[in-house]
Amino acid sequence: MDEPTMEEKLSSLDMLNDEKLDTKAIPEPAVTVELPRADSLHILLRQALHAEDQALLLDCLYTRDEKVIAKSIALLNPANVVKLLKCLLFMAESRGAVLVCALPWIRILLCQQASSIMSQESSIRILNSLYQLIDSRISTFGSALQLSSCLDHLFPRIADEADDGGADQPIIYENSDSEESEDAMETDEGSEGLSDVTDAHGSDLSDVMSDEDGGH
């Protein structure tokens, strides 16, 4: 029975190593988060408007890519355009992250679907409310800017005063025992002086009384 030669054994080992490398080189499918495309976002947006689902609509508004927003808005019919404008007005009345997400959608919607919005009578009231909201926000911007400027001037002064007040002050140590001993000495001296005065007055009074008795 013929045994494999050394060369054949080495060749077989090389083949096994190549197969192991090939199996290790195959990457495992990674879990990737797919960004919303214009077509998928349009479907989600239409579903949210039809079902009046605020949570789903908010998920759509988290998209900040203006190209995706513009393509999604372009695929809406006039009825959904007005619905979206009404929902955006409601979200613009709030503050924080919701307002930040709603602003680019409002701008692109008004610029891209202006003719479709103006052709519907129901949109006039929404546009009027949106105008009043924007005007009220702008009117408070000036006072807020002045307040911000005042705070910018005050904070450095407060910080400087805090730094000056935090300088090391000399510490004066007073020994309470020495003060108490001094007070005790003063008290003793005062009592001795008072006893001397009392004794003097007592002797004078006794002398006067003895003189009076002798006179009688």
From TrEMBL:
Keywords: Nucleus. The keyword Methyltransferase does not apply. Residues 53-154 form the Small-subunit processome Utp12 domain. Coiled coil: none annotated. One of its GO terms (biological process) is maturation of SSU-rRNA from tricistronic rRNA transcript (SSU-rRNA, 5.8S rRNA, LSU-rRNA). InterPro entries: SSU_processome_Utp12, U3_snoRNA-assoc_WDR. Residues 176-191 have a biased composition (Acidic residues). GO terms for cellular component: nucleolus. It is found in: Nucleus. It holds the Pfam family Utp12. It comes from the Eukaryota. Belongs to the UTP5 family. This is Small-subunit processome Utp12 domain-containing protein. The lineage of its organism: Eukaryota, Viridiplantae, Streptophyta, Embryophyta, Tracheophyta.
